[in-house]
Amino acid sequence: MKNSLTENPGLKGWHGSLELAYAQSGTATQMVSAKATAPLKMQRPFYPEGEGVCHSVILHTAGGIVGGDSLGQSIHLQENAHALITTAAAAKIYRSMGEVARQTIQIQVDSGAYCEWLPQESIIFNGAIYRQDLRIELAPDARFLLWEINRFGRSARGETFVEGEWRSQTEIWQQGRPLWIDRQHLQGSESAVASDHALGGFPIVATLAWIADPVTPELVQEARSLWETRSSSSDGEAGVTRLTHGLLCRYRGSSTPEVRNWFSEVWQLLRLRFIGRPSCPPRVWPI
């Protein structure tokens, strides 16, 4: 099995695409354009918290991503639009025979707009070779919240990530200036599974990033306190960092509900502080 991100041009896979655009009309945010090619598809928009916030659910109809797949998404929030974008289920990245599975996502958030990018968990099977590139372009007074939860190996079956490779690159830019760049790379091996500098014996790593308004030290402490209230019953680890343009939360542990619940509490904190409305979990999320 190959251990580097190289492609075999003779192998074919899905080449799916998704193009979305949102616009504000009066007090409502509407999905004004949605173009998709298999295996990507969009559900109809939902408005569980009123017409001002458009909840959107991305479907992957093939059931999982395999080596050779190349998926691209392009999302545009026009002025003052507010969209929450999630996925219908956990993403599965299957074992590869040597070829790379790729996903490229580009998001443009215009003046006054707010994008919440909240996909469900990704399960990276042992032996998968996967690369994701996420680039966001923010207008000066736009807001962006993302989280990503990655499980390495099907841990319920006792599987660990001892083969394969995972790369993730997230870049957030504003008028040609980088606000936050995050590059992560994990080479599957027994040492990576055990190392304190990699998985540390845990199957899950997760990130939440708020890039928009500066946060106060008091808000950082509130986010830490939300973790501390649950840490006594957890073997997981977490940290909160104040960024120049926002807030960063990291998690390493064993429980998807645990990290999702903590992230949801931080999301609620940020929503109330900066948007003036409570968070509203999408209806497709597990209870």
TrEMBL record:
Xref: Pfam families: UreD
Main location: cytoplasm
InterPro entries: UreD
Cell compartment(s), UniProt: Cytoplasm
Keywords: Chaperone, Cytoplasm, Nickel insertion
PANTHER family for this protein: UREASE ACCESSORY PROTEIN D
HAMAP family: UreD
Subunit and partners: UreD, UreF and UreG form a complex that acts as a GTP-hydrolysis-dependent molecular chaperone, activating the urease apoprotein by helping to assemble the nickel containing metallocenter of UreC. The UreE protein probably delivers the nickel.
Function: Required for maturation of urease via the functional incorporation of the urease nickel metallocenter.
Family named by the database record: Belongs to the UreD family.
Protein name, per record: Urease accessory protein UreD
Natural source organism: Laspinema olomoucense D3b
Highest classification ranks of the organism: Bacteria, Bacillati, Cyanobacteriota, Cyanophyceae, Oscillatoriophycideae
Gene expressing this chain: ureD
